[in-house]
Amino acid sequence: MLNYPITLTPDSNGTYLVGFPDFPEANSVGDDKEDALAQAVDALETALSIYFDERRPVPLPSPADAGDAVVALPALETAKVLLWNEMHARKMRKADLARMLDVHTPQVDRLFDLGHSSKIEFVEQAAKALGKTLNVSLV
Q1: Does 49 score more than 90 pLDDT?
Q2: What's the whole-model pTM score?
Q3: How close are the terminal C-alpha atoms of the chain, in Å?
Q4: Helices (DSSP H) in 16-104: which residue ranges?
Q5: Domain 3-72: which CATH class?
Q6: 70: part of which helix (H) or strand (E)?
Q7: Which of 15, 18, 97, 110 is the most exposed place for a label (fewest CB within 10 A)?
Q8: Are 70 and 18 in contact (CB under 8 A)?
Q9: Which residues cross the membrane (predicted)?
């Protein structure tokens, strides 16, 4: 899982402002710390979608200091980000991956849609097509 550090800053209204050192464009606010953390996940997924739409590599999390708040990207979204970054490093387009998988391009479009519940088997198949292995662990 990718754990992105966040900043939680209380404001004068008793709410918490959320920022991401790795994503300056991602900001959010919550009524309390718990709400701020929930809103942070939404802000992070929105920022990731922007990176996908703009065909930019997604920054990996910077190290968090002890006691820092972090937002854990869910496992499926983590796999999608890592797959995306591998494609970007190889200068591949979605159409290239679709050809490698012998599927239609909209299927690959959905693979990089964070709102779509892609089957983990398809993510694994895409990783394999790139010569990679998807590893899952229970910690």
Answers
A1: yes
A2: 0.90
A3: 11
A4: 33-53, 75-89, 94-101
A5: alpha beta
A6: strand 69-72
A7: 110
A8: no
A9: none
The 8 Å CB, 24+ separation contacts for 24-30 are: 25/50
Mean pLDDT of 121-133: 96
Reported as type and span, the H/E element at residue 60 is none
In the block, which residue shows the tokens 């937002």?
Answer: 71
Q: What is the pLDDT of residues 67-120, one digit of tens each?
A: 889 999 999 999 999 999 999 999 999 999 999 999 999 999 999 999 899 999
Q: Are 53 and 28 in contact (CB under 8 A)?
A: no
Letter string b/e over residues 83-112, b meaning 16 or more CB atoms within 10 A of that residue's CB: bbbbbbeeeeebeebbeebeeeeeebeebb
Q: What is the mean pLDDT of the chain?
A: 93
CA–CA separation, 51 and 32 (whole Å): 28
